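A quick aside before the break. I want you to see a complete sequence-to-structure record at least once, exactly as it would be stored in a machine-readable document. Don't worry about memorizing anything.
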Amino acid sequence: MSKLIVRLKGGLGNQLFQYAAAYRLAQENDAELVVDTVSGFVRDKKYKRTYVLTPYPLSAREATPWERLSPFERPRRAFRKRWNALFPFEQRNYIEAEGVQFDPRLLTLRFSGELYLDGQWQSELYFRDYAKELRDELRFVPPQEPKIAPTLRGTESVAVHLRWFESLSDQETFNMQKAYYTKALNHMRSVLRAPQFYIFSDNIELAKTRLADCGDDLNFVVDEDLPGGDALAIWTMSQCKHFIIANSTFSWWGAWLSDTLEREEGGSSVQEKIVISPSTQNEVGVCGWGFEGLIPEGWLKVA
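That is the input. The structure line, written in tokens, reads:
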């Protein structure tokens, strides 16, 4: 049987993208899926990321040390990368992403034996045709449902995410600015009846500062509302009906995993879930977001 080993790295949102792309590729090639949960984290001295997909009922197994290219992992990996770069994409047994843009070659790749997959793969296009199966793979069951969850499901709730890449200043480059949230909030108010906004953030006090004077219908979700880790936070976010995401894979997945999907009405498809995403730029400049393939079809992009 063929085997696909995917190297995971980064935070939860990134790991979900990497797993989803690998899952689809393994299914298409009738291959065993194996996750390298170690090598992508051992040298992460800056962010100290770790493997965080254990709360999900994944069908893949964890890689053995030999499958992680241990011992002497760094030189062995470097050699594989250099050697495979000499061959056409479809003949390689070590596939590394070439940039951030969507690479359609991964969709038609067929392999036998062992394949190693290394990269971010941040696009729904890598796994859209396996969306149903992946939502089952990633069906997180909270050990204790947050008290706020029934309220999110029972109102015209909108999850709003603010991700902080740097402190507040006049020279911010990567934080989404207030103008983006003002436009997004006003759009939701114009198309929804009595929306209630629930603010999620890795720094809720900064979020309150950024959204000052943005309306009385804002509800700030504090740590006490989320008695658990990142998987619980994404799950709680996904209980909302609509989404205003940040330039962050974290809220991207909160929106994508939501059960508010399309429904049929009068013979035509009606989009129930509204998702607003930042476009490529904010007021300061390029924010590393919105590259080709990242924003799913049907999501609204706002500058």
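Two observations worth writing down. Residues 282-286 have pLDDT under 50 and may be disordered. The two ends are 47 Å apart (CA to CA). We'll return to this after the break.
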